[in-house]
Amino acid sequence: MARRVAATLAERPDVALAYWDRGLARLVVSAAEEALGDKVVDEAIALAARHGLSLTDEAVDGYAHPGDAAGIRAAAATLAADVIGTGVALAGSFLRLPPSPRLVTAVATLLRENPRFRGFLRDRLGPSRMDVLLAAANAAVHGAGQTPIALVLDGALRTCQLADTVARATEFDTVHDQVCRPHRAGLPPRPSVRPPLRTTPAQEYAAHASTGSVLGAAATLLVKHDGKEAAEAVLAGSPKAARYGPAAFHTVLSGALARTGVLVRDAERLRQLETVDTIVLHPSALRTPGAGADPWAETVLDAARRAGLAVVMVDDPALRDFTSLADQVVAGGQPLREVVRAVRDEGGTVLTVARLPSTDPQADVDDTHVRDDDTHAREGMEVLDGLLGGDVAIALADGDSAVVWGADVLALNGLADVWRLLTAVPAARAVGRRSQTLARSGAALSGLLVAVGESNARRRSPLPGLRHVPVDIAAATALLSGVRAALGVVLTRAPHPGPRTAWHALQPTDVLDRLEHESDEDTDTTVVEQTTVRLHEAADTVGHTPALAPVRWTVELARAVRGELDDPLTPVLAVGSAASAILGSIVDAALVFGALDLNALVGGVQRLRAERALSGLLAEQKRKARVTPKGATEATGAPAEDASAEARTVDAAGLTPGDVIELKADDVVPADARLLWEDGLEVDESALTGESLPADKQTAPTPRAPVADRRCMVFEGTTVVAGQARAVVVGTGDRTEAARAVALAARTPPSAGVQARIQELTRKALPLTFAGGAAVTGLALLRGTPI
């Protein structure tokens, strides 16, 4: 019906374009002339109404239109509420008006931070209306209670959220003509196949903190029979730091990704990155449409392993070279949705990546009823259901791929965007852990301030207006930490992966021709890349100036000290020191703080010395290579008879693909290279392949051979046992087989050693310590003993 309306409108002479966008469930009409726009729109609305279609601003199947301004209005409304509330709080304080009861503020804060209450409102009002309602209530309560600091912190987070919403809407307007073309497939959302949102660590902590706050308030009320002090106890246990950190991280990350061409469709799903432990990759995601493996395939798989994710791949003949980087390879005939369902049934949180092929958008296909004989459509539906069955669904929308509007993230740049998101997984986990630590520390110190203030009836709190400053400081620190971590992910320099060429399957002359062609392409760098390289080189040169040596050493020492302070016991000792100061034991606090800093300083100095000694040893062991000049090698690779120039010795780190190197007995191969000529060459490859006997080499191609049987190749790090040869460099740095072997073990290893035991002990003992402290405090209050 909708396509019939679009076809009718397209026949009109005053309509330039009319089509039905099935993915967004919108009728798109463009007038031939700007002056006729209103007239065309009115006639389109009337024609659509006659066919049963209506004009609406409501979300389709729970998914808002990416260009809808309703999200911007909601974010602006929440920020405006915080600004107005801050103004009211400051005005009331300036005019010395009586604040509202603390019990009102405590109840509002308790409900606002409670995950169950937030979920209740979200289910009935939707995310946007829930945010507006809670923001308005929070602003009213804190404004009347004259507590502007809480509103300033909330306003900072709301500012980030408004910037994110504007960035996403702006990016959609920018790429609209790319993703909403008339002849590009758009697949509508399928909410029925989406799994429920998992509980995040921040929500778990908030639930426990809410329960603890209520128990603390009940104990305070039981002891002192003072509702105001009970309200102070509730506010002291506020878990907002645990929420602010991850919220700021994902908000800034989403906005920054939008500026690079990534469309985040569901911000709530993006926050599941912290809990993701498995990535499921469909072969369509790792292949270039109509070609072989995507150049980014190996880089993405390596990033997934470094993020500590279990990698699950669907078998495909074109991707056999990458199966060693996967933890599990399932049969190619198994539907993707079954693979995802099996992982989720085992308790895993799954990130799915797939690319849906572009089909004819004008074909009226009912997604829920695919004909049994339509194999292609049925397979496409299985891939779509599998993609949307993940906790976080990333749809590749590069080229002419179908636009899956029900996905959580649309990667318009292909696997490059997936790589960026995978690098964000470890950062999201770190932000979550750090935010919870800050929340616990702030709650402990604020609770102690409340207890001290109520422990002696003859004196009020020593800091009556600063009881909850630790909670606010913890929230501000968590917010800044989340913003900083997100910017670090976005500013991380992306690699420039190249296609993985089977050099061992090519003739020597073909290898030389292809390398020469690739070197010509590599010279076409952008101005931005050239400027970035020059700036880095200039900064490196200035940084190593002798006059700036003290500054450089101070910066290095500060980094080393910071690394020493990154210890599981540091937060515990710091909170204990602050608690001692609050209780009046200034000397004890100074001793603990001084010992902590002195230990970090000594450890930092020792670390710097060790790193310098290691750098000196590595500098003495720099690998060398002999590079033959141009014209010294014949087309066959053999040394030219009339060549008079000798090979020059260079650092192996300076080799580039296309350089021709000489190899002799006892040489360590400086890079992966394809043999051009050899004379009795034997190479010890035990360090790479595990073979105990030297491998005989040849120049003839060895197609489809594994690494150990590639007789026409020499690999970095292996040793020449006998003979001599000339070879052309084809791989350096992280593009060598040795680097790939290291990448196989690149998964983030579990913590081991003393630090791991201390961290485990701290994690188990910290709740007991807090419980014991609370029990002692409660008993002291019951007995009337000063704390």
Keywords:
metal ion binding, 53% helix, Rossmann fold, seven-stranded mixed β-sheet, 25 helices, 787 residues
Return the CATH architecture of the domain at 262-361 and 378-427. 3-Layer(aba) Sandwich
CATH topology of the domain at 262-361 and 378-427: Rossmann fold
Mean pLDDT: 80
Number of strands: 18
**Regions with little confidence, pLDDT below 50 for 5+ residues:** 360-373, 454-464
- Biggest sheet features: 7 strands, mixed
Main sheet strand line-up: 4-11-9-8-5-6-7
Q: Evaluate the radius of gyration.
A: 32 Å
| CATH homology group of the domain at 262-361 and 378-427 | HAD superfamily/HAD-like
Principal-axes geometry comes out as globular
Distance between the termini: 76 Å
At the first level of CATH, the class of the domain at 262-361 and 378-427 is Alpha Beta
Question: What's the short version?
Answer:
By secondary structure, the chain is an alpha/beta fold. α15 (375-388) links the parallel β8 and β9.
Describe this structure in words.
With 787 residues, the protein is of the alpha/beta class. Among the domains are: 1-51, no CATH class; 262-361 and 378-427, HAD superfamily/HAD-like (Rossmann fold), CATH 3.40.50; 546-621, no CATH class; 624-744, Calcium-transporting ATPase, cytoplasmic transduction domain A (Distorted Sandwich); 749-786. The protein has 25 helices and 18 strands. The chain has a 7-stranded mixed beta sheet with strand order 4-11-9-8-5-6-7, sandwiched between helices. Strands 12, 13, 14, 15, 16, 17 and 18 form a 7-stranded antiparallel beta sheet that branches. Strands 1-2 form a two-stranded antiparallel sheet. Strand 1 (15-21) and strand 2 form a beta hairpin. It is globular.
